[in-house]
Amino acid sequence: MSFLPKPFAHSYEIAPEYSKSAVYFSCEFALDQSFKIYSGGLGFLAGSHMKSAAALKQNLCGVGIYWSYGYYNQTRGDEGEMAVQFRKNEYAFLRDTGIRFTVPIHGHPVWVKALYLPGETFSTVPMFFLSTDVEENDPLSRAITHRLYDNDPLRRIAQYTILGAGGARLMEELGVDPEIWHLNEAHGLSAAFRLYEKHRSVEEVRKRLVFTTHTPEEAGNEKHDFKLLNDFTFFGSVPEAEVRKITGIEGEVFNHSLAALRLAHVANGVSKLHGEVSRQMWKSHKGLCPITHVTNAQNKKYWADHGLEAARVHGDTELLRNRKRELKERLFRVVADQTGKIFRPDVLTIVWARRFAGYKRPDLITRDIRLFRELLSNTQRPVQVIWAGKPFPFDFGAIETFNKLAGLCRHHPNAAVLVGYELELSRFLKNGADIWLNNPVVTREASGTSGMTAAMNGALNLSTYDGWVCEFADFSGTNSFIIPPADPSLSPESRDRHDLLGFYEQMEEKALPLYYDDPEGWARMMLRSMNEVVPFFDSDRMAGEYYTKIYASAAQPVIDQTPAHSVL
To answer: What is the pTM of this model?
Structure first.
């Protein structure tokens, strides 16, 4: 039976094995191209989770924020450079619940409106989205839920408070107390303090709270000045001394992830390697919950092209090649529309597409310009390259990298940078790619998921050995092309050079000969990759595993200690 009241109850009969009630907090969800409340991978992951939870008939609901201006619209300026556009969005498919309540922000009551997304709209569990953009609030309060990951650090604190404390207040207004409160990253941590206000027992908080961390480096975890958070009423009415006691945090800096690890009964990294990295990273801190892992995954039903999937099911390489060609032609119409360049469907096409961030190294293969130009000017075995992805709108280093790549591509008719990287463009790129390039600095990518959905659509991964890839591929070259790990003692410059040369070696010695000299062998490798990426990297497995491994009980989880990576 659904734990939600009748107007918002699940539309399906709850599966007995997933009957435990759970609420899932996330700053972003990528559910549909039309619903622009996500920035990138965290949202893609959360969206797939909500779809699979519904498919498995789980007793779970989602809580997020109705970002009225979304993340941002990525466009081009007059000279082809990246431009940022903020535009208010309205969504007729969201229903007003009629629920209003206040959440204190900096001691000031801020009105919050709760909107409801019925599960049948986008094939998800029931979901709720909170907004402060209501007439009862002053302009500053209304703006709290305008932009996802606002660049104002004070507004960001207010956003996290609305997500966490506001989500907890919503549960109270609905008259429910879920057995599991799942924080997808620590953005919703203020929910834990609202729970503590209610129960006045850290044990009661701990037995409910679970925490998924996506951050592979200690420095990447969100931190704020303790007094600032206190001034912003982030801790609700819990006195500072009590906050310090239950979180074990001393000093002037409040580490959100560290507090979550002390207030949850179990936490998980998002790949086997990331679980290892997380345990290593936090081992010097006392009083933490066990850290295990649940490897990220993506929703196959949403992402897999039906024609490619039919070819996979029947093992038909001819049908596979023909459908891939059709999908390349569709992608290349987008390339032509955006850039005026005509790409050819018979040419091997490399795609690099995801959030633009330094550690992901979008420009890595261009750092030796001679090798890059030789790759693009090879007439015997031609190559086409496409980049796409959104930098954070105020990450000027990442924007500069984007613009440099766009400038470089002007000189090459077979290289392009696309704008507007959202769900639909992501789908077109994964459908149309021959090679999905993934070259983050090793151990910096907690999981990564774009290569999973690329593989579901017949693209072969060419990747450094990091994140989810360690559980999918090895160095035999049977389902992917893997750049061997660099010696961890190398300087960053030498490491990057090693990985760059590793890419060109994989291209020259393996990928190009196979694609052009043995097309049937390439198709067989596509099939093998497609067959091996599912079912493990389908989010149905992941959503089920959260129930069996994370939600099941407050008992110590079994932690797989077998190494995922040789460099650790």
So the answer is: 0.96
- The sheet with strand 383-388 has its strands ordered as 415-418, 383-388, 348-353, 435-438, 460-464, 480-483
Residue 220 has pLDDT above 90, yes or no: no
Note the pLDDT of residue 564.
Answer: 56
Distance CA 15, CA 56 (A): 7
User: What are the pLDDT digits (tens) for 20-35?
Assistant: 999 999 999 999 999 9
E strand or H helix that includes residue 386: strand 383-388
Give the model confidence (pLDDT) of 415-465 as tens digits.
999 999 999 999 999 999 999 999 999 989 989 999 999 999 999 999 999
The reported pLDDT for the residue numbered 216 is 82
Percent of the chain at pLDDT exceeding 90: 95
pLDDT tens-digit series, residues 303-317: 999 999 999 999 999
If you search the block for the tokens 């919950």, which residue do you land on?
289
Query: Stretch 517-535: mean pLDDT, rounded?
Result: 98
Helix (H, G, I), strand (E, B) or coil at 85: strand
Counting beta carbons within 10 angstroms of the beta carbon of residue 36, is it exposed (0 to 12), middle (13 to 18) or buried (19 or more)?
A: buried
Output the pLDDT for position 221. Answer: 86
Look up tokens 């009590």; give the residue: 242
Residues 89 and 115 sit within 8 Å (Cβ to Cβ): no
* Overall average pLDDT of the 273-302 stretch: 95
* 462 sits in which H/E element: strand 460-464
CA nearest neighbour of 272 among 289, 304, 300, 297: 297
pLDDT of residue 560: 58
Q: Please confirm whether the linkage preceding 535 is cis (ω < 30° from 0).
A: yes
Cα distances from 213 to residues 62, 293, 440, in angstroms, run: 17, 9, 18
Q: What is the C-alpha to C-alpha distance for residues 135 and 142, in angstroms, rounded to an integer?
A: 8
Neighbouring C-beta atoms of residue 560, cutoff 10 Å: 12
Checking 542-545 for CB contacts under 8 A at 24+ apart, the result is: 542/48, 542/49, 542/52, 542/294, 542/295, 542/296, 542/297, 543/49, 543/52, 543/53, 543/55, 543/56, 543/58, 544/18, 544/52, 544/56, 545/294
Rounded Cα gap, residues 353 and 500, in angstroms: 17
Measuring CA to CA, how many Å separate 174 from each of 9, 24, 248, 282? Answer: 11, 15, 32, 36
Tell me what pLDDT residue 563 has.
53
Cα-Cα end-to-end distance for the chain: 45
Q: Phi and psi (nearest 5°) for 253? A: -110, 125
What is the DSSP code string of 99-123?
EEEEEEETTEEEEEEEEEE-HHHHT
Tokens of 282: 């936090």
Dihedral sign, Cα of residue 292, residue 27, residue 541, residue 564: negative
Strands 291-293 and 266-269: parallel
Instruction: Determine the 3-state secondary structure of 257 from DSSP.
Output: helix
Beta strands in 245-338 (DSSP E): 253-255, 266-269, 291-293
Cβ partners under 8 Å of residue 489, min gap 6:
none
Please give the mean pLDDT across all residues of the chain.
Answer: 95
> Within 13 Å and on the Cβ side, how many CA atoms surround 17?
9
Q: How far apart are CA 38 and CA 424, in angstroms?
A: 13
